[in-house]
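This part of the workshop introduces the protein records we will be handling. The question running through the whole workshop is how a given chain folds. To make this concrete, we reproduce a full record directly below:
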Amino acid sequence: MDERVARFVERMGLYTEAEGLPRIAGRIFGFLLVQPAACSLDDLAGALGVSKASISTDTRRLEQLGLLERTSRPGDRRDYYIISRDVLPRSLDVRLERMRRFQELIDEARALPVRSATVRDRLDNLVAAHTDMIHAVADLQQRWKAKGAASAPATRHARQAG
């Protein structure tokens, strides 16, 4: 693997680890993000220098999150993985869900019997900011979903040709 690609893959692993996923999941995602074709578990294990079992576990996790798609090839029993066609809307779904859960916790804090004006202002500001962020991300998500739906036939054709 090219040295710059290897650094990128490792940085993606560190990023996803900070986001709560295993580092290897991020490395898999980073590696596949810059690959033109689907890769088998053996390809991924060899390129990333980790066990096939670890690759298998984390590709399934990424597939469940909607970030990867599993594919196959005629006459080949192995599974292959590629970045999902709708990775952006799905990642926005995950981010929105996290933001909404945080908003619910802040709403719960606002219902507590706190009399301090400082605390009330802090909680109110958090609610207002998160409400704006949720609306902005939801709007972005809808625009990307509409854009994806409009270009789906062309994207599908380009993938089949590749």
